[in-house]
Amino acid sequence: MEPDIWYNGEFIDHEDAEIHVLSHVIHYGSSVFEGIRCYDTDQGSAVFRLEEHMQRLVDSAKVYRMDIPFDLDELVEAVVDTIERSGLRGCYIRPVVLRGEGPMGVNPLDNPVETFIAVWEWGEYLGEEALEKGVDVEVASWNRMAPNTFPAMAKAGGNYLNASLVKMNAIKNDKMEGIMLSTDGYVAEGSGENLFVVKNDTLYTAPTGLSILPGITRASIIALAEERGYEVEEKKIPREALYTADELFFTGTAAEVTPIRTVDDYTIGSGSRGPVTKEMQDAFFEVVEKGHDPHDWLTFVDVPAADEPEMTA
User: Fold this and answer.
1) 238: β partners
2) Torsion sign (Cα): 144, 33, 86, 46
3) In terms of DSSP H, where are the helices of 155-305?
4) What sign does the dihedral 247-250-251-255 (CA atoms) show?
5) Average pLDDT estimate for 78-107
6) How much is the mean pLDDT over the chain?
7) Which of 66, 92, 132, 296 is deepest in the core (most CB within 10 A)?
8) Which of 71, 66, 80 is nearest to 33 (CA)?
9) The model's pTM
10) Looking at 133, 155, 172, 175, which residue is catalytic?
C-alpha cells in the first residue's frame, strides 16, 4: 500500500491524487515544490529543517503569486501528520503547490491553487556507493538561467526543465551528474545540487547572484564548516578551478554530501573522497543519523518502530 497523500487539508488515497490534463501546471509548468527528508535517527524519526523548507515553499509561491490557503504552521503540521500516517520512519517528502484546471492561457490568476504533500521511501540519490567513492561528472553544455529571466530563488517546477537537460546529457555521456555554469561562465551548481570547491582547506561556493538555488543543505554545511574552523567564501569560481581543486562535493536534500571524483575526466585530488568532504559528511550525519542536534534543525515525529507496539486507548 502506498501512503495516503495530503490534499488541500484532507487525506486521500494514493491512487486518487490526480489532476486534470488541462491543469495549468501541465501546459505552463506553474508549480512550486520542496524536497525534504525524514531520517530514522538514533533518537527517533525526525525531519531535517522542516520549517525552513516550508518557508521556502511559501516564499516560492509568493513570488509566483500563488495564494496558498494554509499558513506556515498548518503546512508544517500537515507534513508531520502525513509522515505519522504513513508509518515510514525514514522517507522523502514532497510538498507541491500547483495551478489546476481553469481558463487556458498563459495568465494563471484565475486557476485554482492546489496543495499536495506526498511521502515515500527513497535511498541515496546518486547511488549507494557515491557517498564514499564519489561520482563522475561533466561540465554541462546547458548554462544556468540568467538573472532576471526566471526567479532562481523560487523552487519552481518549470525551472527544472533546464536541470533535466543537464541530467539527461550527463547520463547519456556515462556520467552521474552535470555542473552548470552561469551565463558569464562561472561555476553555478549541479542539476539538483549545490556545489562546494575545497582548496587549501578553504571552502568556496557560488553566490546566489549567479542564479543558484540557495540550498538548505548548503546553508547547513556552511554553518558546520565554520564551526569547525574552516573559512567559507561565496565567490565567483572559474571553470578551471574545478579541475585543480583539492576536493569537490555536492550538497542537497537528495544528494546529502556527495564527493566528486572526476570532472570532464580530470581526476579531482586523489580521485576519492577527501578529508574535508568526509569531515563535512560526518558532521552532517551526526545530526541526521545520530540525532545530535545543537542547532535545533530536527523536527521529531511520532512513528513507532516496526517492533514497537502502538499505544491504544
Assistant:
1) 186
2) positive
3) 160-172, 216-227, 240-243, 275-288
4) negative
5) 97
6) 95
7) 66
8) 66
9) 0.93
10) 155
d(CA 210, CA 187): 8
- Contacts of residue 202, defined as CB under 8 A and 6 or more positions apart, other chains included, come to 230, 231, 232, 233
Q: Which three cell numbers stand for residue 77?
A: 503540521
Q: Which of 216, 229, 224 is nearest to 284 (CA)?
A: 224
Using CA atoms, how far apart are residues 30 and 20, in angstroms rounded to an integer? 14
Cite the beta strand spans of the chain per DSSP E.
5-7, 10-12, 31-33, 36-41, 44-48, 91-99, 113-120, 135-139, 177-181, 187-190, 194-199, 202-205, 231-234, 247-252, 256-263, 266-267, 298-300
pLDDT band at 308 (very low <50, low <70, confident <90, very high): low
Spelled out in words, what is the top-level CATH class assigned to the domain 130-288?
A: alpha beta
For the chain, residues classed under CATH 3.30.470.10 are 5-122
CA distance 155 to 133: 29
The answer to whether the beta carbons of residues 217 and 194 sit under 8 Å apart is yes
β partners of residue 11? 6
Q: Which fold has domain 5-122?
A: D-amino Acid Aminotransferase; Chain A, domain 1 (3.30.470)
pLDDT tens-digit readout, 132-182: 899 999 999 999 999 999 999 999 999 999 999 999 999 999 999 999 999
Q: How, if at all, do strands 194-199 and 247-252 pair?
A: antiparallel
Q: Is position 155 annotated as part of the catalytic site?
A: yes
Please report the sign of the dihedral spanned by the C-alpha atoms of residue 67, residue 69, residue 71, residue 77.
negative
The residue length of the chain stands at 313
